[in-house]
Amino acid sequence: MANENKTIDKTTELSAEDEKLFSVRQSIPMTAENAIFRRSEGNLISLTLTQPDGTVEEFERVVPVRAFPITDPDEFISIKEPDSREKGKGAELGLIRRMSDFDADTQALLREELDRRYFTPVITRLTGVKEKFGYFYWDAETTAGKISFVMTNVSSNIRTLEDGRVFIHDIDGNCFEIPDPAKLDKASLKKIEIYM
Amino acid sequence: MKLLFDLPTRDEQAFLAVCAEDEKRMYCVPYDFEGERRVSGFMVITDKRIYRILEGEVLDVWSLSEMSDFSVETFYGACGFYAKVRGNSTLLCRFISGRNLPRYSVLQNACDELATGKVRVVSSNEPERFCPKCGRPFVVHTKICPFCQSKKEIYKKLWGMTRGLRLMMLFPLVVAMIGMVIRFVVPAVQKIAINYYIYPQDNAAPSAVVETLRSLVGDVGMQFIVIVICIVTLDLFHRALGVVQSRLAAVSGNRFTRMLRALLFEKIQMLSMASIQNKSTGDLMGRINNDVAVVQNFITNLLPTYFAQLFSFVMALGLLVWLSPVMCLFIFIPLPIAVFCIVKFWSFMQKRNVRAWILDQRTNRGLQDVLNGIRVVKAYGNEEKAIDEFEYNTAKQSRQEESNAKLFDTLFPILGFVVHFGSYLIMMFGNVWLYQGSLDLGTLNQFNSYAGIVYEPLMQITAIPRNISAFITSLSKILEILEEEPEVSDIELPLDIRIEGDVEIKHVTFGYDSYNPVLKDINVSIKQGEMIGVVGHSGCGKTTLINLIMRLYDVTEGEIVIDDVNIKDISQNALRSQIGVVLQETHLFSGSIRDNIRYAKPHATSEEIIAAARMANAHDFIMSLPEGYNTMVGEKGYSLSGGERQRIAIARALIHDPRILILDEATAALDTETEKLIQDAITKVTKGRTTFAIAHRLSTLRNADKLLVLDHGRLAEFGTHTELLEKKGIYYKLVMAQHRATLAKQAGVEV
Questions:
Q1: Residue B428 needs a FRET pair 20 to 30 A away by CA distance; which of A93, B3, B458, B601 works?
Q2: Phi, psi (5° rounding) for residue A35?
Q3: Alpha-carbon distances, residue A4 vs B456, B720, B721, B726, B727 (angstroms)
């Protein structure tokens, strides 16, 4: 056993075969030329990707992820393999600089999936708020219908951005947006004002 | 956690219309997103198919035999449940994360099983986080719904807890009542003094008290002095009672607190790791300190006050009616207006105070951020920015506080005027009647005093509901711990065996959440005296395996056997007294080195302590300290280096001569030099003891007899160093990775 240790210690370089163990996939910039997105059989997104060295890869399903979902939702879209329980986190295959680099159909396809993954209803009216032991119970009308949600720790879960938009995170992991609080009706504004 | 919901009637009908007769309903869980809308749909999973049902319509039916690779993906504001249908990835449904994620995490495993034809209902003992009655979330880490908890139940339990203290707690209440009665007697005596002596009236009705007084004391002056003495004595008595009440309350309050804290602490020590791990240290400390204080304050201070106030309020009202029903109207008529104003005023101030509180939190957070990162601020020369930000925050906060204070100081006196409006009416009409002679001065004075008693509790009336609900929540948080059943417990007649050190792990499966196994079907057998290196990527279950051997948790499936005895049959005391543990973060308790070494064996002799320290290579450095083994360590003691602490921890693990030794990343935080010393110590101490060593640095495991390689919770490889290298599997890759890093370091390249 001790001998085995020595043999490894003596080696100054790893063999090419051993180096292969550590190779990591390189993410490439994606353009309309090297990446072709298609609607998959299961109504999700498939990808044909041409690597710089000319190799063509097929992916049954890829997932778009926004780098700046709040500030720049249409730029820097990462295209990843889906996470799986066996392989762990999916690797990034490439990065789209901006959505407009692609034709309208592809954009629509990507956007459809992005909308599914980034679900942020816009609050149009706040109909009620009640506080009990640090829990805040809200009732709101949103673009996704009437929603009641619960929140703790208001001071960090109601976030006002520099551009004036307000983002609200509830206890369930939902996110809501108020694009311009000043445009809310008076009663709604009064309810949320003190927490902003 | 509920996995089989009942379908609403029309959904049920829709489902029954399409499903086959012999299909067995296995699971039914809600899903809540459809396109852009929040909806209320259900996923029904039978032993053959999956149905998606929404508003009385079956939208999709998939056949389980064609499906595979079920998975749950978390999005932003929602989650998705996916599977491959005939090899094509498909989105089955979307749902809110917090509420249903744990359910679908179970389902993905359950569906995988069903798809491979294994029909078995997977259950989950993961606690629900939402109230089944109203759907609102429970208070964090608890099963308390602030809206649905039964108050009667809680009061009943509280009553049970006060056994032995009841009499002592009743005293302050009784004393408070007596004090109240005296408060009512004083104005009555004053009335006599005014009506018969200070401002005597000829037509004054004869009073029995005055007649008796006159028959006892002849002189009018003396009679008056007797009355004054009476008033003074009553007042003194009243004050004395106040002192007695406070003293009694202090005694009973502290006894109650002590009793409750002791109960809680005892219980927390008895609870298993599993339930303690669910709660943070801060949360537990909060329950022992704050929640107990809230409960104690309520029972010993607020409750007697409320009782006394209610008692005096009712009594004062009764007396007022008896004295003059007409004048009572002056109190009753403004009363609703006053209560209305008080409630409005406090809710108005409450909102502004919340705003100030939020701003205060923001300032604090910013301050903490900058002070913690002061080195970074300085390194980037961002002091100006930090100052600006702080000033912006404090300015905003101080403006808010200022306006709140101004408003309060203006409104509060106005409120006082409104509330006491009735007494102005009394004064006005009282004086008119006095002038007309239909009322005497003594009665007016008495009336005014009682009216004051009626108004007294009014100003604070809005605090009562808040105090009561705070009390109920704190109390239920305490009760929750007191009523928790320890998960790991001894069997009825546990064995106190002397362990030799053979350990067999038989098909062990374990997960902190039942649906998410961390260890899967681990099966190894270890001989007495062997040193086993446990290796694997972080999060592969190494520490979990060791926790199971110490029986901090009970296995979900399979069994762990030591010397042919299931560890569940060994008493926890006997088991742990024969296992020595050295962890990565060595926690030394406040006390001397000697105390720390003999922590596991309080009556160890000095010889034993030195022997253990020598074995751990700690003796030499301890002797170089001026106070030797008596050196104080711990939070406020002598600051030892990581390696020194580690060696003390090893000595502590050795003091009771354990048969099984556990080293959990014991050398991870050390530099190479100290590691050598400790390595040396480990080589000495592992001799003849079954040892489990977890190490990131594989060189630490040089002496291991066998290596146990874990990969995603499964036993990937088991064998000697040489065997595993030849296998060129995971272990080989790990060894290569570390070798490569060393090479890079030698070449001067930063890794």
A1: B458
A2: -130, 125
A3: 88, 11, 8, 10, 13
Amino acid at the residue B695 = A
Return d(Cα B691, Cα B679) in angstroms, integer. 14
Assess if residue B635 is contained within a domain: no
DSSP A121: P
pLDDT at B658: 87
Where among B415, B430, B445 does a domain terminate?
Answer: B430
Q: Measure the N-to-C terminal CA separation of chain A; round to a whole number of Å.
A: 65
> Is-contact B45 A54, C-beta < 8 A?
no
**Averaged in consecutive runs of 10 residues, what is the pLDDT profile of chain B (751 residues)?**
87 89 88 84 91 91 90 86 90 84 85 83 72 77 74 80 79 83 86 82 71 80 86 90 86 87 86 69 80 86 83 86 83 83 86 85 86 88 90 92 92 86 85 85 85 78 80 83 75 82 88 73 89 85 88 85 89 86 83 89 90 88 89 75 84 87 76 73 82 82 86 87 85 82 66 40
Total structural domains within chain B: 2
Quote the domain boundaries for residue B402: 351-430
Q: Which residues of A touch B73 (CB under 8 A)?
A: 63, 82-83
Last residue of a domain, one of B430, B465, B486: B430
The type of residue at B699 is S
Partner residue facing A117 (CB), from B76, B98, B351: B76
In a domain, residue B715? The reply is no
Q: Are B534 and B503 in contact (CB under 8 A)?
A: no
| Angle B284-B290-B296 from CA coordinates, rounded to 5° | 125
Looking at residue A1, its pLDDT comes to 39
Query: Whole-angstrom Cα distance, residue B390 to residue B504?
Result: 60
Q: Are B571 and B494 in contact (CB under 8 A)?
A: yes
Q: Are B597 and B582 in contact (CB under 8 A)?
A: no
For the whole model, what pTM was predicted?
Answer: 0.67
Nearby residues of A14 by Cβ (< 8 Å), 6 or more positions away: B736, B739, B740, B743
Q: Which residue has 């005939």 as its token pair?
A: B86
Residue B412 belongs to some domain of the structure = yes
Strand order in the sheet with A56-59: A35-39, A45-50, A56-59
- A155 closest CB neighbour out of B97, B358, B721: B358
Please state, in angstroms and as integers, the Cα–Cα distance from residue B440 to each residue in B193, B208, B316, B436, B444, following that order: 12, 17, 19, 10, 7
Which pLDDT belongs to residue B728?
83
Whether residue B167 lies inside any domain: the answer is no
* CB pair distance less than 8 Å for A22 and B87: no
Instruction: Write down the ipTM of this complex.
Output: 0.86
